[in-house]
Structures are given as structure tokens and as C-alpha cells.
Write a structure and sequence with these properties.
Helices cover 52% and strands 11% of the residues. The strands form five sheets. Strands 5, 6, 7, 9, 10, 11, 12 and 15 form an eight-stranded mixed β-sheet that branches. Strands 8-14-13 form a three-stranded antiparallel β-sheet, with no helix packed on it. It is elongated and about 120 Å long.
């Protein structure tokens, strides 16, 4: 046979061997025969050479055990070779034993539905590989307990167990070997894989040892992970995900990734199916999903930074669950299946008095200026009115108990009439009477109507009108520069945004004579969704739960020089400048940093979320008055309910009247008359229910 043909056959043999290894790695189970072929060669010769003459009786017995494939005896002989002959003649048996274990582990990782394919006694023999003298006892059926062996150390010497670093040759390391091997063998005996080990005691959020004292990551840990996650503890997520990187075997990685997704599918499904738990642990769930969906930034000198998914292997998986959670969230918004979804969604944004929004004559609506007249009384200054608005709107963000303390029965008779203590004065000063409360509600109603009833671009324009009315100014947004509204010489700019990435203003809009060197007061409304919002792409009107209001001043000094809140000038072209409140990005002046570092002056709360679901504006407001045994608080609650009914009847009557004049439908006409009549009766009875005469005429000392 020619040399070239021999070379070809050698190459072919190598290819076939590689294919065989690949097949094993992809799921082919190693057999006991394969293990026996690894450990048995040369053992009878060892026995003959060392003990043939002196221990002839025992040698005969041991040879018989070898012919019966007694793994304990075989491994005991190999161990004695290390003990007394420094491993002479052993060759690469320990490495092959290690590889056999690893292949069996991979098989179970990829075939978890299959039962154990190897006799547990065979695996136990590997664990207890004993000394030659103890092997004689084994041959007589006695199984001694060993703490450590030379063979065990050599099996794992300088080889990481499933991706971890090699084990040092020390007494403590030998103890780790023993524990790890015991856990590995225990799992393999049950047909279960192990994914990795750790050499030090688990601390903090380590994924190892969730369920076992041994430092191993296996299926029992995933069972424990599922159990604790359903209680809202999702703190192990980051460590479980990051453990993937520690696996050197690609087959184990594939299995581990599948196991992660299988476990978290069960966890997420549990929360999807249990609405109260979903709402109760929403913060932990969001953090968990965020980490699945997080990114990492790679930077190289002289090259732009590259951002990529932290866990690309889970990208499709987590995106699918984000969609499911978003769908469920919308389902919570929509209420139970028994309700009409559209009606429920409409009610989420329904205000108490349902004022019409019609931007005419520079005003948000016809009645808006009248509402503000009562709201601000004699206050006219820009800053003064902003401060009053801030203070009055804080009422609706108070906890329920504090809110009710502001409206409950006065403990003392009114100080302004009868005089009295300082305590009485403070109580009266803080007290919110019924007309004051309803006036605040009406102003809030306008905000709710435009913020939740219109798309984002239109709502942004409405916000300009709202602010112009609020500060007693006029809308001048048609000028085309930064100024949206003006009060005398005071200039204001309005931004109604759903994310900090929209906190920007065109640089060109500052480059006009009317703005140069003048203070422009920005009023920014930052929309915030329910705290179960999964994506930051924007906040839909239906999702608006709160709006944070920020104010700050910007003066354009010329060029790209600005000052914020009368602070030091900052030249945006100078990266070394002291102040960096603003930045220039693609022709836009960005002020997101101001909003990140500055607290809002107030928060307007239009919805709320609790363990029972999403409460619309009406329910959120009603809940503040609910459950009190105070007569005045109950009286306020009745009044608010009566006002809701009045305006519902008026709106319903208007709608039916419109239908009647278009269609001539008798029923529509009758419904219109009934609803408008009911609204009239409601208005007539309002004084009796709400005590509306109290503020107009306070009692005097000589009143009977």
C-alpha cells in the first residue's frame, strides 16, 4: 500500500473519530462497556507483577472480579498504581474517565426526558475508587467509605469541571473535589445533569447552592429558583444568566440556555395568570425583564462605541414575553372580560366634570379662565401663580390619611370667626372646604381631558394653552421660536414629553432677537406610565398615570453660550466648561440632564395602580375620600359623586339630543329629556348634599 494511500486512510480515520466525538457531544450516551474499555487494560498484568507469587489466592479472586467487570476492583487497582507506583502504566486513563463523565453529563443535559442509562453502582465505583487493600474487602462484598483517594485527585487534576478553573492540589481542594464528585454522581445516577461548580462558599446572589449544600448548579437549583421567584424574589436572575459564560462545553451551554428559558417561562406564566401577584411584584418583574433585555457597551480607542445585547441568546425569548406582558397590562387597563373594553378605556380618562376642550380666543376652553379665576383669586404674577398651582395640586398626591385630614370636620370652630389658639388657626388654614376642593378638581379635569383625550402632538399644543391660561398669559407659539406663551414681558416655553430623550429644543429657535439675552422660563411636563411600563419608547395617552412638572430658566447669551437658572455661563462648544446643564446634539439643545438632577415642583396624579388593578382618574380621586367615618369627609364624597352624576347626565343628554335632531328617533329624544331633567334635579339638590352655602356665608357669633 502506497504512502499516499496510508496518509489518506489516517486522515479519514481522524475525520471519523472527530465525527464520533461530535455525535457523542450531541446526545450519544457513553456506555458502561466504553468505561470498562478505558479502565481495564493492563490490570491483570499489574496484579501478576506485584502480587502474583505472594498473594496467589487473592490474585485469583481479583482476576475473577475483573472478568466480571467489577469497576470497584478495577478502579482500586488503578488507585494503587498512583499510591505505590506514582502512576506508572496508568497512562491517560484518568483523563478518559473524566471525559466519559463529562459526555454522560452532556447526554443528560440534552436528553432530560430520558431515564438513567448507566448503572448507579458503576458511577458509585468511580466516586469511591479505593486503595488496593480495601479492594479485597470489596471483592468480599464489603463497601468501605473513603474520604479521598489518589485516583480522584488525578481524574480532576488540571482539568476544570464543566467550565470552572482547575482545582489546586491541596487538602481543602480535595474536600471540594469530594463534594463536587458526590453531587455529580448523585445527579448522574438519577439521569440528571450538573451545570457547574464553585470552589468557595456561595455568597450573596450566587446561583450555586440554591437548593443544596454542595456547591453545584443543577436542576434542583432551577426548581428552587422557580419557587422563590413566584414569591417575588427574582434577585438570582443576573447570576443565573451570567453563569452561562462559565460553561466551556457548547452542548452544556445550549442545554443551560434552554433550561433558563424553560424556568423563566414558568415563572412569567405564573405572573401572567395571577394579576394580583403581577401587580404586587411588578417592580421585581420589570427589573428581571430589564436585565434579560439589557445591553453592554464595547469601546476601542479611536473607534466609536458599540452597544450590543448582553444576552443575545435570550433576545427572541424575552421580546416574546415583553409582548405578552404588555398585552396583559393592556388587559388590566381594560378590566375584566365581562366589561365592555372600549367603555372601560374611555372611563380611564374620564374626568369628573368632563369639560370640553376647544382652543378658541387663545384659551384652552371657554370655561377654563373662569375656573382659574376662582383657583388663583387675586394672584397675578407668573411665579406666584406657578407656586400656587404647585401647592394646590399637591393635595391630590397626598396619602389617603393625610388627604382626609385636610377635608375632615374641623376640630375647632373657625378661627377667623371665633378666634382661638394657634392650633385652631393652623387647622383652619390647612382645611380645604368643598368649593375649594371642587375648584381644584375642575382645574385638574382640564388637564386630564387634554392629556388623556388627545394624541401626543395635539396634547403638546394643548399643554401650551393650559400653561398660558395658568399663568394668565397668551399663546404665542406661532412665532416659531422657543417662546410658546407670554405674560407681559415674561417668556415661557412648554414641553409635554413622554421620555427624557425628547427633552430638547432646536438651537435655531434661540437665534432670534426677541429671545437673545432674555430669560425664558421652561415648564416641562414629563409623562409617566404605570409602574408596569415595559418599554421606554413613549407613553400612550391611556397609559399616563402621573405627570411630573419641572420649571427652570434658560438665557441665551449669543452663539452657543447659555446660562441655566441664573448660573454661570456655559459655552456648549467647550467640553471643559464648569457647568454642563445643556448639551448640543445634532443641532438640538438638550436639557435632559436638568430633569435628571432637578426634582419636579409638583406631580399631577391622574391614575393609580394597586393590587386590584388600574384605577382611572375618577376612581383614584374617589379612593382618597373612601372609607372615612368622618361626617364631613362622607359629605364631600357624596358631593363629588353627585357632581359626577350631573355631568354624566348632561353629556348623555347632549349626545341623545344630537342623535334626535339628526335621526328623529323618538327614543333618543325621550332619553335626552330624561337625562337633562335628571341633571337639573341633581343641580337643585346639590346644595343640600354638599352644603354649598358654607363658604358663601360663614356663621357669625350672634347667629341663632
Amino acid at each position: 500500500m502506497s504512502d499516499s494511500l496510508l496518509n489518506l486512510l489516517e486522515v479519514l480515520n481522524e475525520v471519523l473519530e472527530e465525527q464520533k466525538l461530535q455525535e457523542q457531544a450531541s446526545g450519544g450516551a457513553p456506555t458502561e462497556d466504553e468505561l470498562w474499555n478505558i479502565v481495564s487494560p493492563g490490570l491483570e498484568e499489574v496484579i501478576n507483577d506485584r502480587y502474583g507469587d505472594r498473594y496467589k489466592k487473592y490474585v485469583t479472586k481479583i482476576k475473577e472480579e475483573l472478568r466480571n467487570k467489577n469497576f470497584s476492583v478495577a478502579l482500586g487497582i488503578i488507585n494503587s498504581q498512583y499510591k505505590y507506583e506514582k502512576g506508572q502504566g496508568v497512562g491517560d486513563k484518568p483523563k478518559k474517565i473524566y471525559n466519559w463523565l463529562e459526555k454522560l453529563n452532556v447526554f443528560y443535559a440534552l436528553n432530560q426526558s430520558k431515564k438513567a442509562v448507566v448503572n448507579p453502582a458503576t458511577l458509585k465505583a468511580i466516586e469511591t475508587g479505593v486503595l488496593f487493600q480495601r479492594t479485597l474487602k470489596l471483592s468480599r462484598g464489603v463497601l468501605p467509605v473513603k474520604t479521598n483517594t489518589d485516583l480522584m485527585s488525578h481524574i480532576f487534576a488540571n482539568r476544570p469541571l464543566f467550565g470552572n478553573k482547575p482545582i489546586a492540589n491541596s487538602r481543602s481542594a480535595q474536600g471540594n473535589q469530594r463534594n463536587m464528585l458526590s453531587r455529580l454522581i448523585a445527579n448522574l445516577s438519577q439521569g440528571e445533569p450538573s451545570y457547574g461548580f464553585i470552589l468557595t462558599a456561595p455568597e450573596g446572589n450566587s446561583p450555586y447552592g440554591l437548593a443544596e449544600e454542595f456547591k453545584v448548579l443543577d436542576l434542583k437549583d432551577f426548581e428552587k429558583l422557580i419557587t422563590i421567584s413566584k414569591t417575588g424574589d427574582l434577585s438570582k436572575t443576573s447570576n443565573i444568566l451570567n453563569a452561562t459564560k462559565k460553561l466551556s462545553s457548547e452542548a452544556l451551554k445550549i442545554s443551560f440556555i434552554k433550561q433558563i428559558q424553560k424556568s423563566y417561562s414558568e415563572i412569567f406564566k405564573f405572573f401572567i395568570e395571577n394579576q394580583e401577584k403581577l401587580l404586587e411584584y411588578r417592580e421585581a418583574i420589570i427589573n428581571c425583564i430589564d436585565y434579560f433585555n439589557s445591553s453592554v457597551k464595547f469601546e476601542k480607542e479611536g473607534q466609536p462605541a458599540i452597544t450590543s445585547p448582553r444576552f443575545p441568546e435570550h433576545k427572541e425569548f424575552i421580546n416574546d414575553w415583553i409582548k405578552r406582558f404588555s398585552f396583559k397590562y393592556q388587559g388590566i387597563l381594560a378590566g375584566s372580560s365581562s366589561r365592555d373594553e372600549k367603555e372601560y378605556q374611555r372611563n380611564l380618562g374620564k374626568s369628573i366634570t368632563q369639560p370640553p376642550i376647544k382652543t378658541s380666543a387663545g384659551s384652552l376652553a371657554k370655561g377654563f379662565r373662569n375656573a382659574l379665576k376662582y383657583f388663583f383669586e387675586d394672584a397675578t404674577g407668573f411665579k406666584e401663580r406657578i407656586d400656587i398651582f404647585n401647592e394646590k395640586m399637591k393635595l391630590f398626591t397626598l396619602p389617603k390619611e393625610k388627604f382626609q385630614n385636610r377635608v375632615k370636620t374641623l376640630e375647632y370652630l373657625p378661627y377667623s370667626v371665633y378666634g382661638g389658639s394657634e392650633e385652631a388657626r393652623q387647622e383652619e388654614e390647612q382645611h380645604v372646604d368643598i368649593l375649594d376642593l371642587i375648584n381644584r378638581v375642575v382645574v385638574m379635569d382640564y388637564f386630564v381631558e387634554f392629556s388623556k383625550g388627545f394624541s401626543a402632538p395635539i396634547a403638546g399644543l394643548m399643554f401650551e394653552y393650559f400653561l398660558a391660561g395658568l399663568v394668565g398669559g397668551e399663546v404665542v407659539g406661532q412665532r416659531g421660536d422657543v417662546v410658546d406663551f407670554q405674560v407681559g414681558d415674561s417668556l415661557g416655553s412648554a414641553k409635554f414629553i413622554s421620555s427624557l430623550k425628547y427633552a430638547a429644543q432646536s438651537a435655531k429657535s434661540f437665534e432670534v432677537e426677541e429671545v437673545l439675552g432674555k430669560k425664558v422660563t421652561y415648564v416641562v411636563g414629563l409623562k409617566k406610565a404605570s409602574d408596569f411600563k415595559l418599554e421606554d419608547s413613549g407613553v400612550a395617552p391611556l397609559e399616563i398615570q402621573e405627570v411630573d412638572i419641572y420649571t427652570f430658566d434658560i438665557i441665551h447669551k449669543g452663539g452657543l453660550v447659555f446660562s441655566v437658572d441664573d448660573g454661570k455661563d456655559e459655552d456648549l462648544k467647550n467640553p471643559q466648561r464648569e457647568n454642563k446643564n445643556l448639551s448640543l446634539v445634532s443641532g438640538e439643545i438638550r436639557f435632559n440632564k436638568i430633569l435628571e438632577e432637578k426634582p419636579p415642583i409638583t406631580t399631577i396624579k391622574v391614575m393609580s395602580t394597586d393590587g386590584k388593578g388600574i384605577k382611572g382618574y375618577r376612581k383614584t380621586l374617589g379612593a382618597l375620600l373612601d372609607g372615612s367615618d368622618d361626617s364631613v369627609t362622607q359629605w364631600y364624597q357624596q358631593t363629588l359623586k353627585k357632581i359626577e352624576e350631573i355631568f354624566d347626565k348632561i353629556k348623555g343628554g347632549e349626545s341623545d339630543a344630537r342623535d334626535y335632531v339628526q335621526t328623529g328617533e323618538k327614543r333618543s329624544g325621550e332619553n335626552a329629556m330624561k337625562q337633562l331633567y335628571d341633571s337639573r334635579e341633581g343641580i337643585a339638590s346639590l346644595g343640600d348634599v354638599g352644603g354649598y352655602q358654607f363658604k358663601a356665608r360663614k356663621p357669625k357669633p350672634n347667629d341663632a
